[in-house]
Write a structure and sequence with these properties.
Blueprint lengths: L1 E9 L9 E9 L3 E6 L5 H8 L6 E5 L3 E5 L10 H8 L5 H10 L16 H12 L5 E6 L7 H12 L10 E4 L3 H7 L2 E5 L4 E5 L2 H46 L13 H31 L21 E12 L2 E12 L3 E5 L6 H8 L7 E6 L5 E4 L10 H8 L3 H10 L16 H14 L4 E5 L7 H14 L2 E5 L3 H7 L2 E4 L5
Parallel strand pairs: 3-7, 3-8, 5-6, 6-7, 12-16, 12-17, 14-15, 15-16
Antiparallel strand pairs: 1-2, 1-4, 8-9, 10-11, 10-13
Helix pairs in contact: 2-4, 3-4, 5-6, 7-8, 11-12
């Protein structure tokens, strides 16, 4: 079945900038379709419009019932069976169990309060319920945020088996995890800077086309910019000639004034003036037409980082480390040494204490005991995992962060942060935009050591490439927790596994 979007236009109340203008595309509901685009390009907004949550201009034809993931759970204290049945009212229990089994979720969770499940288990339970519905078209928004490496691989394989003419419903998936997308999608819907692509393939297929398109567009833009400069110079000369002609109408030399017909001079000057002004307008129109062709180049600009060199070689040492919550040990025998220049990743399953270790080492709370050694006078720059506490204005955030405002905003602009966002309250920003605020704050701070806790959550794929390029060029000392396998493979020099294999 086909989903058809025709001339879709939408602007949020109180905003002057449209999210979409005359957007048109088609896709098939049997496809495993990945939705790709920069933060703020309208991915989540599109999902909401497909659900008809907002009034809009244009036409959306959706033959199935669009169902959003994650499904909102009104009462998290209810047992998981009831939560799943509220997400899939027509499902039989055997159907729920079948889907849960594919996601390696134990049957016993059905009788447990939903709130007692881990975030990863909650994600899998809601996905299992969603795919029991035969009338639904799944709109899956960032399912990997609470999944460890094993969970991501498991869910990717689960989604890879969906869709197809003889294999049930496909889905529309928003994710910025490149390895995850490569594993489970077979088509891409890409919201670009000025148009939309619908194409067959995976993330790698899309990236190859994007790079090829950027090379073509960049070369084309360079030609257009030269043409614009030439036209602007021609228009300037024509305007100057027009001004001289107009002036000549009133300035006739006294020696010839007796034999000159001033009416004739005025008429001729007016005619010349009209012709020259028409020429100027034609050139200005040509300039605007060429400017309108300058579009759709997705630039991945360079970011800057000031790395301080600490006199000590070993910056952090943890021997026989232990993480415990309320007397319950969740991780022990933690041992690692972080040397100057290392980019070390802590990996492991959800709930094994990775974030707690980072918080403790960054002086942000957390729980870590054992033989812990931190180099004296070590300057840290920390990015927390959560963004929920961000509120207020951009100016207030900059003041609290004590960073250079010009540098901070320049970094954000280079991460595709539009100028109108500088005036938007932080609580109204998307999760990806909030994460970019935290990353920009960290990048503004010269430091011996950068500690980043899941820095790529909600961050678009092009910004991930920017950060990879930055870290490879700057070579900072970095301690991080992250689940993006491509990112870790490209930038990490060391990995420490906690609580079993990741």
């Amino acid at each position: 079945m086909q989903v058809s979007v025709r001339n879709l236009s939408f602007t949020y109340d109180g905003s002057y900038t449209p999210v979409f203008e005359n957007l048109s595309f088609n896709f098939n509901t049997s496809w495993r379709l990945g939705l790709i685009g920069r933060n703020g390009k309208g991915k989540t907004t599109l999902l909401r419009l497909l659900q008809r949550q907002y009034p809009h201009q244009g036409q959306i034809d959706m033959p199935l019932t669009p169902v959003y993931f994650p499904f909102p759970v009104a009462d998290t204290s209810a047992c998981t069976r009831d939560v799943m049945r509220s997400a899939a009212p027509e499902a039989e229990e055997w159907q729920l169990l079948c889907e849960m089994n594919q996601l390696e979720v134990d049957d016993s969770v059905l009788d447990r309060p939903f709130s007692t499940l881990s975030k990863g288990e909650q994600t899998k339970a809601l996905l299992a319920a969603l795919f029991t519905r035969e009338d639904a078209y799944p709109l899956i928004d960032e399912p990997t945020n609470h999944l460890d490496a094993h969970g991501r691989a498991l869910v990717a394989e689960y989604l890879r088996r969906k869709g197809g003419k003889n294999n049930g419903s496909g889905f529309l998936l928003v994710s910025h995890d490149r390895a995850f997308l490569n594993r489970c999608i077979n088509h891409v819907l890409s919201l670009n800077r000025s148009d939309v692509w619908v194409m067959q393939g995976t993330y790698d297929t899309w990236e190859a086309r994007l790079n090829q398109q950027n090379e073509y567009e960049q070369g084309r833009n360079e030609v257009l910019l030269r043409d614009i400069h030439r036209l602007e110079e021609s228009a300037r000369r024509t305007a100057e000639w027009s001004a001289r002609a107009e002036k000549g109408k009133f300035h006739v030399a006294p020696s010839v004034s007796a034999v000159v017909d001033r009416g004739y001079v005025g008429a001729k000057a007016a005619s010349m003036m009209k012709k020259s002004m028409n020429a100027v307008r034609r050139k200005e129109q040509a300039i605007e037409e060429k400017r309108s062709l300058l579009h759709n180049v997705e630039k991945v600009g360079e970011l800057k980082l000031t790395v301080l060199r600490h006199p000590k070689d070993v910056l952090i040492s943890v021997v026989n480390g232990c993480v415990a919550y309320d007397g319950r040990v969740v991780c022990e025998d933690v041992n690692f040494t972080l040397r100057r220049g290392d980019r070390l990743s802590l990996t492991g399953p959800n709930g094994c204490g990775k974030s707690s270790i980072l918080k403790a080492l960054a002086g942000q709370g957390g729980s870590l005991s054992g033989q812990i050694s931190i180099a004296p006078n070590l300057i840290l720059s920390y990015v927390p995992q959560q963004t929920d506490d961000l509120a207020g204005t951009m100016a207030e955030f900059i003041s609290r962060a004590e960073v250079d405002e010009t540098l901070f905003k320049a970094i954000l602009r280079n991460m595709d942060f539009t100028r109108d966002l500088f005036d938007r309250p932080l609580e109204r920003m998307s999760q990806g935009q909030k994460k970019k605020l935290l990353l920009a704050r960290s990048l503004c701070r010269p430091a011996h050591l950068y500690i980043w806790d899941e820095p790529l959550n909600y961050i678009d794929v092009l910004s991930r490439v920017q950060l990879e390029n930055l870290l490879l060029a700057s070579e900072p000392t970095l301690l991080l927790v992250e689940h993006d396998a491509v990112f870790l493979e490209r930038i990490c020099t060391k990995t420490v596994s906690l609580g079993g294999d990741a």
